[in-house]
Write a structure and sequence with these properties.
By secondary structure, this protein is of the alpha+beta class. The chain is built from 3 helices and 8 strands, in the order αβααβββββββ. The chain has an 8-stranded antiparallel β-barrel with strand order 1-2-3-4-5-6-7-8. Strand 4 (154-180) and strand 5 (185-213) form a beta hairpin.
Length: 281
């Protein structure tokens, strides 16, 4: 009996060790399974804030302040040549030296509106816009020259007078815009065609006297010529940039700078800084 119990005791010891090992393995697996959700929950994939939707039609109003520069130069050259072409002064002498008119600057406020359409791809925005402003930007310049000519036995004293003025009241641009959305902000740049309506006045005059001998007047010539155009269409190019800021819904505010260069008629440009309020549908 004693021997039999000893044999049974020796067999039960390995069984106990196996059971303990199985329990430990089960506990480790349970703990690992319990840790997995915690590990997964500790990592969150980055989220990206969706950009504002600027796509669609929009309208708005604006007000600003700007400065103009009008470079008259030899603006009256064509009518001055026309003035003396069929006269004795033009026949005997070259066209008299006409004064070069000076540039003139002017500052004033303006107001107007804009309408456009945006297309959007993620954060990139491309659009078309018509922009209009009303404001009075004007300038005028005048000058005169006195010249002496000697042709054989004829001496001539010629006084040439030239004057020009221009007033731009309505101006704007048709532009292509490119912008990039950053949260509620959309900075943009644009380029396009500048257009405007201007009142232009020009005048020239020649006062000439020819002498065949000292104190002997052979010919006296005094003839003015003027030209006036109301609401003359002027054009050129437009450049600038700004930023639109979405407030809520479709309401946004704007700040921008615009440069207009008119290449027709008088060489004139207008720099404008402005603010505006608009609504995107």
């Amino acid at each position: 009996m004693i021997g039999l119990r000893a044999v049974r005791g020796s067999r039960s010891w390995p069984m106990r060790r196996f059971g303990v090992a199985a329990i430990l393995v089960a506990m480790v697996q349970s703990a690992s399974a319990a840790d997995l959700p915690i590990l997964r929950g500790s990592y969150t994939e980055p989220t990206f804030r969706s950009s504002r939707n600027w796509e669609g039609f929009y309208v708005g109003g604006q007000a600003g302040y700007g400065s103009s520069n009008m470079q008259f130069g030899n603006y009256n050259k064509d009518i001055s040549s026309q003035l003396v072409s069929n006269t004795i002064i033009g026949q005997l002498f070259d066209v008299p030296a006409w004064p070069t008119l000076q540039s003139v600057s002017h500052r004033n406020s303006s107001f107007g509106g804009f309408v456009g359409y945006n297309m959007q791809w993620e954060n990139a925005v491309v659009g078309f816009e018509g922009n209009y402003s009303h404001g009075t930007f004007s300038g005028s310049s005048a000058g005169e020259n006195l010249s002496m000519y000697n042709q054989g036995n004829i001496v001539a004293g010629v006084r040439t007078i030239s004057a020009a003025s221009m007033t731009i009241k309505d101006f704007g641009s048709l532009r292509v815009r490119g912008g990039y959305v950053v949260d509620n902000f959309m900075p943009y740049a644009f380029a396009g065609m500048a257009m405007g309506l201007a009142d232009v006045n020009r005048s020239v005059a020649v006062d000439a006297t020819t002498f065949t001998a000292p104190g002997v007047v052979q010919y006296h010539f005094n003839w003015p010529l003027s030209s006036s155009n109301k609401n003359q269409f002027i054009y050129g190019f437009a450049l600038g940039g700004g930023v639109d800021v979405m407030l809520f819904g479709g309401l946004f505010v704007r700040a921008e700078y615009e440069y207009l260069q008119f290449t027709s008629s008088v060489n004139a440009n207008i720099h404008t800084v402005r603010g505006g309020v608009g609504y995107k549908f």
